[in-house]
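so my prof wants the structure for this chain in the tokens format not the other one, which i didnt know existed until like an hour ago. anyway here's the sequence
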Amino acid sequence: MKNICLLITLLHLASTSSAQMKVILDTDPSYDPDDMGCMAMMHNMATNGECEILAIVNTMDQKESPLCISAVNFFYNRKAIPVGDYMGYPRKKDAPENSYDYHIARDYPRIHEKWEDINDGVKLYREILESAKNSSITIVIIGTMHNFYGLLKSEADEISDKTGIQLVGEKVALVSTMGGNFLNNKGYDRTNWGGSDHLCSYTDWSCLNEERNRMCRYVIDNCPAPFMASGWENGNGDYFNANNGNVITGQALKQLAEDHIIRKGYEWYFKYRGGEHDIRRHSNDQCALHYALRGEGENYQAFTDGRITLSDKGVCSWDNTVNRKQGHIQKKRDDELIAEEIEALMLGEVPE
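here's what i got, hopefully its the right format
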């Protein structure tokens, strides 16, 4: 199965137009449905000719999460898109019933029959980058840094005689990530980059996770490609009383067929959290993807050519006096207008 997926990947790379933006999505579909929203955006933008999806990789430690990705690819009739998974967890857990990946993996057809059929995410990264042209790949990370950290730490092997850092430096044009907090150029990370000591009193799941923090600090300090962050203040700007507004999307998915996989993902999320009639959700992940694929446009202002620092306590800061090819984005348009554009990209016809 894995050799077949590699062959499909290489044929996919060779047969598509070089004019399209070539994208790898690194995600963690399980609890928050904005990961489903991002996969919908990417598939619809691929249908519109805006991007080519080279792979989607999972960082979540649940068996159903990569199977959920496989089901989404199947639903959008892009069965050849390889799916990767982080293999470094001591063990994989069964998803609980209150996570939407549990239901999507059970209710929808997919290419991969079981979790063990999924590609190793780090190896899949290496295979794709080794076959790519220089500075041709955009990587969008809307989950944790597990796979990308593993890529940067990887050594030369049978796939490539280059280290992961060398491959990223040569082949990646941009890494766009959702994480951190850069309101007023300094803030506390919420969870993707490891959370923050400062937020422990606010919510338990925003409290510092030392492993995630360590991995993210390594990525920030060692990523050789341009690295741009969309912090929590963009999609969920009222978090921790920041008073920066929220980009809210999801309700328009009710226009889709009742069995549409993205609509059902949102509805399953909300079913266990008060009811599935109102499926509006903040759009943290979508903002990072939106910027990665469409740039600043009318929606964002990019602060570039600086240095991001993440402390071991989860404090983020950005310094524009040292150029490490790093930066962050801030909203420059009304939340509602950004939301309308994102939501439109979440809708679309499933290609034949």
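also thought this was worth mentioning. The chain has one domain: 2-346.
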